[in-house]
Structure formats: C-alpha cells, structure tokens
Amino acid sequence: MNKRLITVFVLGSVLFSAQAQQKDGSITDEMLQEIKLSYKNSPADKAIRNAIGGTDIRKLALNQENMKGIDSYFSNRVESKGITNQELSGRCWLFTGLNVLRAKVIAKYGMGSFEFSQTYIFFWDQLEKSNLFLQVIIDTANKPLDDKMVEWLFKNPLSDGGQFTGVSDLVTKYGLVPKEIMPETNSSDNTSRMATLLSLKLREFGLDLRDRFSKGEGKVVLEKEKTKMLGTIYRMLVLNLGIPPTEFTWTRKDSRGIPVDTERYTPKSFFKKYVNQDLKNSYIMLMNDPSREYYKTYEIDYDRHCYDGKNWTYVNLPIDDIKQMAITSIKDSTMMYFSCDVGKYLNLDRGLLDLKNYDYESLMGTTFGMSKSQRIQTFASGSSHAMTLMAVDLDRDGKAHKWMVENSWGADKGYKGHLIITDKWFDEYMFRLVVQKKYATSKVLEILKQKPIRLPAWDPMFASEE
C-alpha cells in the first residue's frame, strides 16, 4: 500500500478513536462550551469569588440571623465537675466512656473534680489491639495478601480511636486508677508519632508471621513468636506512656479538697470499690442508621479492642425511640456515651451544633438536599466523635428542644467545655448512644435476643470515634 495512504489511514483511525472516546462520557468541546455559557459571571458572583479567594468559607457562610444569644437553660441536667482534654489524640471514646463512669463516682462520694487515668487504659488498649492484629494475622495466614480481610488488617493494624465496648472490655479486664497515679505524657496527648511507629512495627511482624506460616510453621509456634513480638510492643508502650501500676496508695478528698481516706489499691480493687458495675452486661448500644432496617440487631466483624472481647453490637432504631431512652436516663441523673458527626454545622466559638449555623446554600447558589440515609450510603456522613450526653431541655409535653454534651476538648472550647445541640441537628447527625439496660424499653430488650446480622469490619459507618 502507498505510504501516504497508510499515513492517512492511521491518522484517520486515531482521529476516529479520539472522537469515539469523546462521545463515551467525556467532556467534548461542545459540552464544555455549554457548561461555560451556563455561568453568567454576574457582579454578585464576582463579589463572592473575591471574598472566597481570601476568606474561610465558614466565615462567609456564617448565618448572622442565627447569632442571637444561646439559651443555656436545660430542664433536666446531670451535674459534672471538671472538663477533660484529650489534646491531640483520637481518644474521645476513652474520655467519654470514663466520663460516664466518673460522674457517678463524683456524685456518690461528694468529690471535687476527679478523673480516672486515661493513659492507664490507653496503654492496655494499644497492647490489646496489637495482639488482636497479630492473632488475626495468624488466623488468616492461609489467605492471600490481597484478600479483603488481610488487606483491611494491614491497612488498620492499630489506631487510637475506638468505641464503648473497648471501654467496657478494657476496664473489666485491667481495672482503673486515678489520673494522678498514671498521668498523661507527651505521647498520650500527641499520639500520631507513637502510632506511626507501632503500626510500622506491627506490619513488619505481620509479614514475618505470614512468611513463617508459608514455610510450614504451625499455629503453636506462631503464637509463641507472637508473644515475643508483643514484648517489643510492650517496651515501646512503656517508653512512651510509662509503666502501668500494679499497686498504689491513693487519698480520696472531698469537694473542699480535705482528705477523707487513704488506702492501698490494685487497679481491679480500685475499680471494684469506686465503680463496681458489670460493664459488659449492663450497657447496650443504640444506633440510628436509616440506611438499614430498624428494629434489628447488628454486629461488626472484628470490631473490638481485645481478641477475647466483644464485637461491637447494637440495636438499630428510629431516632425518636432513642430520644425517649436518653430522656429517661438523664432524668435519673445518668450520663451516656454519645457519638455523632461533630464536624457538620459546628460553630465551636459558640459551642453550638445547629443546622442554621451556616448558610452554604445561599453562598454557593445551590441546594444540598441529601437525606441522612443518602449521606450515609454515599460516605458523606458518619460518626466521627464521642462525647457525654448529659442534659436535655423539654417542653410541657415532654418534647426535646435541645440537648447538651460534655466534651473532651478542654474547658476553653465550645460553651464552657460543652456543646449545645438543637433537636433538629440531633435528628440529622446523631448516630450512637450507649444506655444502661434499665433505661431500655421492653421492645429493645427483646430485639437484643435476636441473632445479630454481621457486617464487615470495613463498613464505612463503623470507623472508630476519634
């Protein structure tokens, strides 16, 4: 064939191929022209563009009509003393769980501000999670590296996040100590560097265990090797967090700071004296996830803090059912573990979670109309932070207008260390609540008897709270 004809043929083929690709869902020249013409470049748009170019969008979207004074009155409120601070760590789940427990201790013994040691429980949390990772690596050693479960494990060998079942399992197993017995360290306040090093070492150990399995080493040998590996992890934790106490002397003081008694304790005897509660069997987790069927019990595979612990299990309920149990608990002076999508419409300066805080629609000239269910299904929303639910404001008919949580971001953040939540925000962005069984309805207790529907560990709704 003539070389010129060949060239024309090749060029024509390339042109035809490019045109075919353009027609297959890509932006063509004609489409781009239509898109450009849809933008009118009005003076108002230019002013908004200029403003956004040098200003935080949240400041521009701040709804001035919603800036009136906050009503801080609550008809029903559980009293607490002292705001905790998780600093630059993802331990909100731990602070929240321990805050629920400490409120009862403070009230029972007439104490001043008091905290359990978060560092003590965090130490065991990190060791237990390391063991969980390594043991499941052994359990799945016969699966390929690109298996979904194995892949998830290596992506998530360790985290400082968690949820209430972790508090329950860890406190039951290791007990509690006062904060002054094992105080915070730089690594507990700032967990990222320690977490990076621990995760790096765990991934290395995980590959080593899989390699040993491939060479024929059995489970007994692998688990002995795992114990040696956990010795390395333990040392790294001690260097970062300190040595967990096995015995200690502690003096309890009253609200005026006057010593009341001095005793010698172990962490378990301290837990027994000051909490003495069956945490594993006296609490239940409630979820509002409209993307899944209500009045069902669900369980999250491998979502636990300890290998011998309990998987995260919950009852999925309509929001109004959850509210009634929350109100019952608050009326009985009992705080609750509460988690939500805290970053949505938060005005931290005012300490207010309100759908009216920011008017993004007016600023952007469009609407954002997805339902709660749709936001969950499209990964636009999910639980991100745990706090302690401790107040509700009810009208004469018993309907909630607003709620309040005790946060763990320090006393200078939000409303005196708290966040006030409008009831409509609660509907849209509240996800989980842990209540004592005695506040649950008979219907919920009956649902708990169901065999749980098991969901995978990587389900996006079940990331750990931070």
Kindly describe this structure:
This protein has 466 residues and is α+β, with helices and mostly antiparallel strands. The protein has 18 helices and 14 strands. The strands form 2 sheets. Strands 1, 4, 5, 6, 7, 8, 9, 10, 11, 12, 13 and 14 form a 12-stranded mixed beta sheet that branches. α5 packs across α8, α6 packs antiparallel against α11 and α10 runs antiparallel to α11. The termini are far apart. About 2% of the residues have low confidence.
Write a concise synopsis of the structure shown.
This protein has 466 residues and is α+β, with helices and mostly antiparallel strands.
Task: Summarize the topology.
Blueprint (H helix, E strand, L loop, with lengths): L2 H21 L5 H10 L4 H10 L4 H5 L14 E2 L14 H18 L8 H22 L8 H8 L8 H11 L11 H4 L2 H23 L4 H23 L6 E6 L5 E7 L1 H8 L4 H4 E5 L8 E5 L12 E4 L2 H13 L4 E5 L5 E2 L4 E2 L6 H5 L7 H6 L7 E10 L5 E7 L11 E5 H7 E7 L5 H6 L5 E3 L11
Parallel strand pairs: 4-6, 5-14, 9-12
Antiparallel strand pairs: 1-10, 2-3, 4-13, 5-6, 7-10, 7-13, 8-9, 10-11, 11-12
Helix pairs in contact: 5-8, 6-10, 6-11, 10-11
Given the structure, what is the number of helices? Answer: 18
Question: Mean pLDDT score, rounded?
Answer: 93
Strand percent estimate? 15-25%
Task: Give a quick account of the main beta sheet: strands, pairing sense, barrel closure.
Answer: 12 strands, mixed
Helix content: 40-55%
Low-confidence stretches: 5-11
CA-based shape? globular
Q: Termini, distance in Å? A: 69 Å
List keywords for this structure.
466 residues; 18 helices; twelve-stranded mixed β-sheet; alpha+beta; two-stranded antiparallel ribbon; globular
